[in-house]
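CORE FACILITY INTAKE
Project code: CF-77B
Contact: R.S. (postdoc)
Sample description: multi-component assembly, two entities in total
Requested service: structural model of the whole complex
Turnaround: standard
Below are the sequence entries exactly as provided by the requester. Do not edit them.
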Amino acid sequence: METAHRKHPNYVLIWVYLAILTAIEIGVAFMSHLPKQIIIPALVFFAVWKALLVALYFMHLKFEPRKLLILAIIPLPLAAIFVLAAMSEHVW
Amino acid sequence: MTTVAATSHVAHAHHDDRSFLRKYIFSTDHKIIGIQFLFVSLFFLLVGGLLAMQMRWQLGFPGKPMPGGGILPDTMAPGGVLLPEYYIQLVTMHGTFMVFFAIMPLLVGVYANFLIPLKIGAHDMAFPRINMASFWSALLAGLIMLAGFFVPDGAPRAGWTSYAPLSARPDLSGASYGQMLWCVSLVFLGLSSILGSLNYITTIINNRAPGMTWFRMPLSVWSLFITAILGLLALPVLSGAVIMLLFDQTIGTHFFDPVAGGQALLWQHLFWFFGHPEVYILILPAMGMVSDIISNGSRKPIFGYHSMVFAIVAIAFLGWIVWGHHMFMSGMNPTLGSSFMVSTLIIAVPSAIKTFNWMGTMWRGNLRFHVPMLNAVAFVAMFVIGGLSGIYMAATPVDMFIHDTYFIVAHLHYVLFGGSLFALFGAITYWYPKMFGKLMSEPWGKVHFWLTFVFYNLVFFPMHTLGMAGHMRRIYDPTQYDFLKPYQPLNEFISISAFALFAVQAIFALNFILSLKWGKKAPQNPWEDNGLEWSLPAPAPHGNWETVPTVYRGPYEFSSPQVPEDYLPQYRKLPTDREPARTPVAGH
């Protein structure tokens, strides 16, 4: 089995990576002197970065066949619909 | 009887030398885990029922001491009279237990576990240990939720939907630890559902027997498959939302507190983005099992098999884009309201396809009204009533009038009790022989069915009238409003009917328990059905098959002209049948 011999990614390192990103997020959230227009995109950027790390390494998607990657991407439009609906409350 | 004896590859128990603890407590056998889920969720069903009885006492006889209420502490019911703050705990916990710990595990935990491997021809789930973890997480979640009654301030008081900011701020609801336990419990329940869903999806995709193509799968398996996808996508949303709520309660975040810059509507959006797929998690498995039972009871192939499958998929997809119909009165963006109204009305189409197909299946069938069939037909009838009242509510102008009234309570109970629970009564009776090797009593099953059917309608149908009259949903004492006083006799009538409905469930409980010991020994295929599970002895042995059976046809070949009997099992090879091209997958 080809996959059985593949070296594991360093999960602890990924965890540390995530912890550092979380610390940065918390730091950004407390920078009250910055305008919201900067804080919100920054937090979204870090959140997507973290989600990608989890999906690629902890969910193994980086090492799986492309079909599985596509399968994981399919529900994303549902999430997009949700985010758009929730954001429209602010416009309203 | 030509069915089973002729199939040499089936019906051979693996030798089972596991200890009692490994076999029945910390089991990885999908059937035992299904049975564990069954006993635990029936217990929580009883808990939810007892809470409902107390609510009905208060609504029917407000301010009067409840018989037996003296055993409750003064913080709940001094002198047996229910306090308002205890009443709202009852409302919250009744909904929570029934939705999360009774109906959901009964339909998915029990029947996905028990039926999927048996019906697709697998030895077990793809990940048996994850399966065991799923059960123990669910039990832990239930116990944490139950603990809510025993902490200072008591159980949560924000309703089963836990709307913020009421749920986010203990100073508003009066419940602190109870509300936190509610959140922690649902995190564990979410974990259980995610683990279970992963397992069901993987098993169905990878572990089907040779010849079990996608369109030879029984509708019960199709619906459990789609339900598992819903669960896998929906439960993480709930878990995320309740963790945010927990943070609001404990570490000072303000996600849902508008006073501090949060957004209360965000909770409603998150909850219902999970909650509406959850509604289909609570009904799709019931629809699947009812399809199997109705085809069997009609001795006819299911009408429109493919359209049934596509209807399940359509309902599941549409279920993701309708959540806002729970929020028409929340003050949300009205543009969203219109789109949610349209998408909700569209769901009526696949739902109607299924309903007409069930009727088409029964039409001119050779009907056998055994207990599962009676319950399955009742499911269809009650689901139609619940579905029709749902169409009323989908229309925003109508919903504005009946929102948060007893009309909603009537609707959801027609779907969840009249729908899911009738399907469960049928399913429990139908697969009881394969679980325990005994038959439940048919006469007592019929007595239970008819009494339940009558009292159920006497309880929930008049609630439509109460709702139209403006009777609010989570109200403690209806008599404090002059406009509701004329309806108090109806409330009394509903309460008395509810007590009778609860009492007749003792017949089912006794039938279930006594049949374990004194029930008639079940033959291998008591319902003369076609599914693979009926090729096994009753009860089905550990590991199911020595060699998995080969599948030659779909599951609904009743009254086939190819054989003298009126059923033709999936595993029976006729001279004209060809061996399937696919060989058994690894592990078989």
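Facility notes:
- DSSP finds 16 helices and two strands in chain B.
- Confidence is low (pLDDT under 50) at residues 1-13 of chain B.
Invoice: internal transfer
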